[in-house]
Design a protein that fits this description.
alpha+beta, OB fold (Dihydrolipoamide Acetyltransferase, E2P), elongated, conserved putative lor/sdh protein from methanococcus maripaludis s2 fold, 4-stranded antiparallel sheet, 5 helices, Elongation Factor Tu (Ef-tu), domain 3
């Protein structure tokens, strides 16, 4: 007779395949566990709501003057540098003037020569006039012929014409002298306005050429306590903004600080970039503390409308779509009236759709009303995508 333990082991080995089959059948044929989706919610609140148009732009001084040179030459000295304040008329650079001084001396000499030729022509005219008078006197006494009188008269007219030519030559020489003096004066570069030098583009010894266009030597900002932002607004939103709208903006240098300004101008000239039409808007900014620098990138929000005491909901709540059949979603949307949207609020039987009228749309919140909603009511905002239904894929014998 076999021991009892041996018989039990044999029985266990006999039943083990049957147990495995039963467990597998239970695993694959058991009903799926219903895992309720988890929704994050937010509350309807009442307060102020601001609608804005966002854009980016660049800070620059209100008035910036590019100081150039009207004459060519070598920079002899510089009297201004970066960040240096200057006054109107201050000497900021000097171009080597020797060549221009020599041209002035040459022009002075040419002028004196022309004046001498003019004076000589005047003497000739006076002589011709007296000769005509003598011939005319003799002609009255029948001592000379008429042809002699005509010859004297023609000589006078020719000398007078020559005199006028010499007078014109004097004027031409004087203009040339003044031109060379002007060029000599322009070798001294002076500040055209009161301001601060924000750019210097030349060094001592450098040659500047003004043959085609005036080279820029300095850039002077008139007043850095008042600046402007040049920003482009898309044509889709340009109808919403107007001059005088308040503006808030931030810069990367001060991420925790919000600056303010005023929309001063909406320029009419369109700018087309990649097929998109934009319009340049100018925002005036107070920079009394000089914290803002020219060239900084500003993220701009133009306030186009403000309402107080409105019922508002996060924008995400109006975009929320629960995981229900698409046909049901389409039916709900088909029943919407113009200007309406759907809010989903938790109820006893799950989420309930509410048709609400949408008002002012802000950057993060939107004004809503109707649909039986009240302040403090919870609305679904997002569906939290947690781990998939944690049903066990297998079994344990222990």
């Amino acid at each position: 007779m076999r021991p009892v333990s041996s018989r039990l082991a044999a029985n266990w080995l006999l039943w083990l395949p049957l147990l495995l089959i039963a467990a597998a059948a239970a695993y694959y044929y058991r009903p799926a566990e219903d895992v309720a989706p988890a929704y994050s919610t937010a509350e309807l609140s009442r307060g102020d709501l601001v609608a804005t148009v966002s854009a980016t732009g660049t800070l620059s001084p209100l008035i910036t003057v590019l100081v150039g040179s009207q004459v060519s030459g070598t920079i002899q000295s510089l009297s201004a540098d970066f960040n240096m304040p200057v006054k109107t008329g201050d000497i900021i650079a000097q171009i080597e003037p020797s060549l221009f001084a020599a041209k002035v001396a040459e022009a002075e000499a040419n002028l004196k020569s022309a004046e001498a030729a003019r004076d000589k022509a005047a003497v000739t005219v006076n002589e011709a006039r007296r000769n005509l008078q003598r011939v005319a006197s003799l002609e009255s006494r029948k001592l000379v012929s008429d042809s002699d009188v005509d010859t004297a008269r023609f000589a006078l007219e020719a000398d007078e014409a020559e005199f006028r030519l010499k007078v014109a030559a004097v004027a031409e020489s004087r203009a040339a002298r003044d031109h060379e003096r002007f060029n000599l004066e322009n070798t001294t570069i002076r500040a055209p306005i009161d301001g601060v030098v924000i750019s210097r583009n030349v060094d001592v010894g450098q040659t500047v050429a003004a043959s085609l266009q005036a080279p820029t030597l300095f850039t002077i900002a008139q007043d850095l306590t008042r600046m402007q932002i040049e920003t482009d607004v898309d044509e889709s939103f340009i109808g919403m903004v107007k001059e005088g709208d308040p503006v808030s903006f931030s810069v990367f240098a001060y991420p925790q600080r919000t600056f303010s300004g005023t929309l001063a101008q909406v320029r009419l000239e369109p700018k087309i970039e990649a097929g998109v039409v934009k319009y340049n808007c100018i925002v005036h900014v107070d920079n009394s503390d000089l914290s803002l620098k020219p060239g900084m990138t500003a993220t701009v929000a133009i306030e186009v409308e403000r309402r107080s005491g409105v019922l508002k909901v996060p924008n995400a709540a109006l975009r929320f779509v629960p995981p229900i059949p698409p046909a049901e979603i389409a039916g709900l949307r088909a029943a919407l009236k113009p200007g309406e949207s759907i809010l989903w609020t938790p109820g006893n039987d799950g989420l309930e759709p509410r048709h609400v009228k949408v008002g002012l749309v802000g950057e993060k919140e939107t004004e809503v009303e109707g649909g039986g909603i009240v302040e403090g009511m919870a609305v679904a905002v997002t569906l939290r995508k947690e781990d998939e239904a944690r049903t066990r894929r297998g079994f344990s014998l222990f």
